[in-house]
Amino acid sequence: MSIPKNTKKFNQLNDKYHLILLMMFVGVSNFAAAQKTYFKTYFSGSNVYDFIETDSNIWCATESKIVKMNTFTNEISYFQLPGIPPIYDYKYYKFLKEPSGKLWIGGEKGLFYLSDGNWFRHPKFNEPKTFIKMFQADPKSGIWFADIFYDQLYFLNGDSVIKYPLNSANVREVAIFDRNKDLWLDQLSRDISDDIGIYRMRDSFVIIPVFGDASWHSKAVLSVCFTEDNTLYMSGIAVKNQMYNFPSDYLVQYKNGVWTDIFSPVLDNNDPGKLKNILVESNGEKWVTTSNYLINFSADSLRVHYVMRSPITNIKQISDDRIFLGTKNPEFPYMGVGDGAFILKNGSILDSKKFGNGQFNTNNIIALSVDKDSTLWVAGLYDHLSLKTQNGWKEYYTSQLSVPLMPDVILQKQDTTIVTGENGVHYWYDNEWHFKEMDFFGTKHAIVGSNGNVYVSAYHRSVCEVNLNSSQCYSNLKFSNNNTNDFDKPLCKDKNGRVWVGSGNFLYHTNDTGGWTQVNTSKWGWPELGDKTRMNFDSKNHLWITTGNRHIYEYNGKFMIKHSPNYTNKVYPYYVGNTIVTDSSGSVFIGTYWDGLYRYDGENWHVYDTSNSGLLNNNINAIALKNNGLWLGSELGVVDFTNFGSGKRVSNLRDTVANMSELMPLYNVKLFPNPSNGKFTIESQESQELDYEIFNIEGRLIKSGAFKNSINLEIAAAGFYICRVIDPSKHGVAYLKFMVGN
Fold first, then answer.
1. Is the pLDDT of residue 110 over 60?
2. Could you please report the per-residue DSSP string of 290-347?
3. Alpha-carbon distances, residue 371 vs 410, 447, 591 (angstroms)
4. Rounded to whole angstroms, how far apart are CA atoms 19 and 615?
5. Are 738 and 696 in contact (CB under 8 A)?
6. Residue 320, burial from CB neighbour count under 10 angstroms (0-12, 13-18, 19+)
7. pLDDT of 474
8. pLDDT value of position 693
9. Using one digit for the tens of pLDDT, what is the confidence trace for 97-108?
10. For residue 431, what pLDDT band results from cuts at 50, 70 and 90?
11. Cβ(580)–Cβ(547) under 8 Å?
C-alpha cells in the first residue's frame, strides 16, 4: 500500500526522545505468571500554552508534557513534573525566570523549580488544592505569585515567605514591574458591582482608576506591558454601569498619569475577552493578540498583521528580532486542530514546531485500524488522520481534501482504507482519495460486509449499505422513534458473513435475499441497548454486548450469559464499553470509558488500568489488533500494547443467565450419587439436548457443556458445588446442589 502523497514527515529528531514506558508485573493467573507486558505511548503536543527562553532553550507547557527545545539543534526533550501524571494537560501552568536565571513553573498542582536539569516541587506550596495563577519575578531577587484557591499573594525569596491576604479581591492573570520597579497587579472583585481594576504597589497597594471615566466598571485586566519610557499598555474587558450591559474589549495607554483609549471596542463585541496578550518589542514594535489575530498597533492606529488558523495562547520575544507564538486547538471541531508554536521575525513566520513522539494533533484518539501492510491508521478528535508506518509517523491534512474529513470510523477492505465521517464515506485506493456523498449526517458505527459493501449506522435512525463502485446508498434498514436509540446502533459481522445491528430491544441481521431479518430476542433475556452499546462476535461465533450498565453480555446461540466482573478498583460502578474486539485465540477485549482495558480469556477476566499497568489513561476509545498485541486509542494518545501479562485477574467472576426469573423449573433432572468421591452423573428424561454449568462455592465457573439424556463427570477438589442445567428450547432451568468428598 502506498502512503498518501499529501503527508508531512515527522521530525526524525523526535524519534530520539520517544517516551518508552516499560512495565513488567507479576501475573496472578495460572498462565504467563512471569510474562512481560510492554506499553509504549505515543502522544501529541500541538497545544502550547506557555513558554520561556533560557540560554539556547525554549521551555514549553503543552497538552502532554513539559518540553525543552534547543533552538540551535532542534533537539526535543520531554519532562514530567513530580507528582503529575506522565501525560498531562498543562493548560493552567506558567513559567517564570528569576534575574539569577532560576526557572520556575506553577499551576493547579503546586509550585516547581528547575535544579541540575530536573524539576522539583517546592515543599511549602504542595497542597493538593494549591493553584498558582499569577507569576512575576522581583527585579532584585525572589518571586511573586498568587494562590487563587487560598486567596493569598506571596513573595518568596529563598526560605523567606511573606503573605498578603487578598480579602475580597482575586488576582487573575497580571503581575508586572514597571521601570520604577513598582509592582502592578490586576484584581477582580468577587462582587461584580465593585470597580477594582488595577493596583500599583510601592509601600502599599493603591488602585489606579482605569480610563478616569466613572461610567466604566468591572474592568477585567487581561494583559499589561511597559515600554522603556514607562508607558503602560493594558488590554481587557469592561462594562458600562448600566446593569446587564454587555462587556466590550478595550486597549488603553497610561502615560504620565493620563489614560488614552486606543480602540474600544474591537472586533466582535458579542464575544469579548479576545485581547489577551500584549508585547512591546525592544525595537518599539507593539503587538496585541486576539484569539486568531496578530495585531500591530500604535497610539493612534492598528492593523491586522497575521491571521492564525488556531487560537493564540501567548506571545513573547525570545531574542532581539524573534517572536515565539503559541497556539492551541480551536474551540469548535469543524475549525480543525492546533498548529503548535511559531517563530516569527519582523512579523513573518520563520518556523513552526509541534511537540510529541506521535504525529497527530490531538491526544484524544477515537478510531484505529491496521491495513494489510501493517500500517496503523489513527483518527483523532476533530479532523485529524495520521498513519504509522515502518518508517515512522505520517500526518495527513484532511483540510486538503475536496470535501473536508471529520473521521468517525476507519475500515479496511483488501487494498482500500475506508474512513466514514460526518459528510459521507472517504476511501484511499490506488494512491488517491475518493469520496461518496451520502444522505446521512455522522456515522456512529460502520463495517464492511462479506459482499464488500460498507454498512453505516447513521444518526438519523437508519442503516445504509454503500457500494463504493456506485453513487447510491441502498437497502436501508429504517428504525422508528419507538424502537431505537438516536445514537447507538452497533454493527458487527458473524463468522457466516452476516451483518448484525442492534437497536433498543430489537436485533436484526442480513439475509440471503439482500434484506434484513428481525431476530426474536424476547426469550433470550435480551438487554435494552442504549448509549455506549457495542457488539462483536468472538471466534466461537458468540455475540458479545456491552450496554452501559454494570454487566457484559454473551449470547452463545442458545441463551444469554450475563458477566459481572467484580473489580474493586473500578472508578465507575458501571461497565461502559467504548469498543469490543476479539482475536483468533478466543480472547475478548473491551475498552471501557473509566476502567481501562478488560480481557476475557475464556475463563477469567483481567483488567489493565493505570493502577496495575503502564497505561496512562483509563478511557480506551479504540482497539486494533496487531501481530503480537493491540493498538489502543485513549484520551492521552496511542498505546502500543504487546505481550499480554495477566494484569489484575478478577477472581469473583459471576456468570448468570439473564432473565433467569422468567425460566420455568425443570423437575425431571437429577444428579447422583450425592455426595460422591468426585465421579457423578447428570441424567434427564428430556429428549432434547441440555446445557450444564458447574460453579464452586465462590461462584466461579468450573465446567460447562451440553449433553443428551445423561453425562458422566468428574471433579477432583472436595467441596460444595452448584450444577445448573438449562433447557434452551423450553426456557427451563434446574439447580442441583452437590458435594464432593465424604
1. yes
2. -SSEEEEE-SS-EEEEEE-SS-EEEEEE-SSS-EEEEE---SSGGG-----EEEEETT
3. 10, 14, 21
4. 13
5. no
6. exposed
7. 63
8. 86
9. 998 899 999 998
10. confident
11. no
Distance CA 577, CA 596 (A): 10
Q: In what order do the strands lie in the sheet with 365-370?
A: 7-9, 392-397, 384-389, 376-380, 365-370
Neighbours of 520 (CB within 10 A): 9
Predicted local distance difference test score (pLDDT) of residue 205: 66
pTM of structure: 0.71
Reduce the DSSP state of residue 660 to 3 states and report it: helix
pLDDT per residue as tens digits for the range 277-322: 899 988 888 898 887 788 888 767 777 777 777 788 889 888 778 8
Q: Which domains does the chain have, with CATH numbers?
A: 38-353 (2.130.10.10), 365-655 (2.130.10.10), 663-740 (2.60.40.1930)
Burial class of residue 145 in the structure, from the number of CB atoms within 10 Å of its CB (0-12 exposed, 13-18 middle, 19+ buried)? buried
Q: What angle do CA 198, 202, 207 make, to 5 degrees?
A: 25
Category of 374 on φ-ψ map: left (φ > 0), alpha (ψ -120 to 50) or beta: left
Q: Which residues contact 729 (CB under 8 A, 6 or more apart)?
A: 688
Q: Which grid coordinates are listed for 412?
A: 479496511
- Mean pLDDT for the stretch of residues 410-425: 84
Contacts 24+ apart (CB under 8 A), 459-467: 459/486, 459/487, 461/486, 463/489, 463/491, 463/501, 464/438, 464/439, 464/440, 466/425, 466/436, 466/438
DSSP state for residue 63 in the 8-state scheme: S
Nearest to 2 by CA among 432, 393, 419, 427: 432
Backbone dihedral angles phi then psi of residue 601, each to the nearest 5 degrees:
-95, 10
Written as nine digits, the cell of 627 is 501481530
Quick check: bond before 247 cis, omega within 30? no
Asked if 297 and 289 count as a contact pair (C-beta separation under 8 A), the reply is no
CA 195 to chain centre: 40
Q: How many residues does the chain have?
A: 742
Residue 654 has pLDDT above 50, yes or no: no
- Distance, in Å, from the CA atom of 644 to the CA atom of 614, rounded to the nearest integer, reads 12
- Measure the CA–CA gap between 248 and 300, rounded to whole angstroms: 19
Q: Are strands 664-665 and 732-740 parallel, antiparallel or unpaired?
A: parallel
Residue bearing cell 536539569: 117
pLDDT at 26 over 70: no
Least confident among 20-24, 101-105, 213-217: 20-24
**pLDDT (tens digit per residue) in 598-647:** 888 887 788 888 888 878 888 899 999 988 789 999 888 899 888 766 66
Q: Which of 576, 596, 505, 490 is nearest to 537 (CA)?
A: 490
What pLDDT band is residue 729 in, cutting at 50, 70 and 90? low
Is residue 446 within 8 A of residue 409, CB to CB? The reply is yes
Query: For residue 325, what is its C-alpha cell?
Result: 507564538
